[in-house]
Amino acid sequence: MRTAGTPDVTAEATLVEAVWGLLHRALQLYRDDPRATGRLRGELARLEQPLRVAIAGPWRSGRSTLLNAIMGEEVAPVEGADGDTFFTWYEDGERPHATAYSTGHPPQDLTVVKSATGMRVDLVGWRAGELRDIVVRWPTRALRQLTLIDTPPVTGPDEHGRAAVLDRVLRDADAVLYLTRDGRASDLRVLTAARDSATGQAAPVNMMLVLSRADEVGGGRVDALLTARQLARRMHRDPAVGALSLNVLACSGLVGLAGRLLTGSEFAALAELARVPRAELEAYLLSAERFLRGEPPARVDAAQRAALLDRLGLFGVRLATTLVRTGCDSRTKLSAELIRRSGLTELRESVSRLFIDRQETLKARSALVGLEEVLRAEPGPGSAELLGSTERILAGAHEFQELRLLATLRGAGLGFDAELAAEARRLVGGDGVGLAARLGFEHDAPAHELWQAAAEARWRWRDRADDPLLRLPQRRGAQVVVRSCEGMLATLAAGGR
């Protein structure tokens, strides 16, 4: 819905400039403290860098698989000795390149071996615990607007290790895709930790919750992806979840990646299996062992079946053969349908709408988190004044007010009916931050139509903001919407689109 070249109407540059000014004041304040100035210069630098999106979650939540699906190539995980884990950063680059950052050695270049579907990084010679970070530079369109971070698991037996990983995720990432298999309470407690700081409480939402491995819901039945989407929608309506997450989505990274990488020979093998009567084939698809060791009446040998299981999983084989039978009679059609059903398209659209479109706001939020940590860790003359300025930006910045309202609208806390809540969500950028998306236009529209829609919306919501019969939270929510409408009108008056 957002048109190319459409600017954000919420004057994000003003917020970034305010944060930039605060960081420079802090640099002057801490000019004799190398550690503090190093942190502050890092925060300034990331304002100019691509948005950092971490993919985090517990053990076996599918973090690396989802990252591969987003990129459309098999580049993760980069595996260390004896299952060693570390942060792996994927950045755009002109050529494949990887650099290791360790606790006791200077940065070292690593050998990158390209394959037909991605790459492998050679970590021979590195001992467990030595590596802290690996930065992979990889030429791909998916990384032109963001940096993806593959993180160690944030749950496990080592409580101290879990806390350290989560602290780094929240410190280093501007936005987080948090993966969970079932949305259990322990995962929600991890998300709650993001709100501990003053910045986190004032601008709490920079996460999306992803029900990963959605193909395994309900025992991996053929309707597993549909069931997972229904579960995600129920969670999305839960106020406790809405306060922590901008969106809740279901996605099978394995099925999505299979759709992006499906080869002609894999399609041919699936088509051969699909020719077997469904009742006969189902008997071989009850378990992976039966599919591998049995002899289904099709010309697909054991090696081909093993490759299909590796690419699609047992659920994916069931789904793909069903789709071939029902009309996906080419590799292109099957790939597109696997991607659609996996939830990957919806996930990528949400990342674009809620993260990339708001990247200046999210990066400003990260810089304020870093500044707050420095000011609280090393108080001194002038630090209290800077902390007060930080809090005033957090309280007054309209961009953060929009994020808070979006989180509140996820539940029934404001008391708006469904139609009003949907309009408010759209006007404050929940469907995209461009003018067309906010005003409900799918394509380019004449400026006078956009102006009329914005003006009418402002008057409607101004009436609600001034209505003494409405509860105070409703009036305050309406005030945020009014300010968003005024921002749109100001952009149009200045000749913006």
What does this structure look like?
Among the domains are: 12-72 and 140-252 and 345-357, 3-Layer(aba) Sandwich (Rossmann fold), CATH 3.40.50.300; 259-332, no CATH class; 412-497, no CATH class. The longest helix is centred in the middle third of the chain and has 24 residues, at 302-325. The model is unreliable at 1-13 (pLDDT under 50). 44% of the residues are buried. The chain has helices at residues 12-29, 34-47, 63-71, 159-172, 185-192, 198-202, 224-236, 239-242, 253-261, 264-274, 278-284, 288-293, 302-325, 331-342, 344-355, 359-377, 383-396, 398-409, 418-427, 435-439, 447-465, 472-493, and strands at 51-56, 87-92, 97-102, 108-114, 119-122, 131-138, 146-150, 175-180, 207-211, 248-250. It has 497 residues and is of the alpha/beta class. It contains 22 helices and 10 strands. The radius of gyration is 25 Å and the shape is globular.
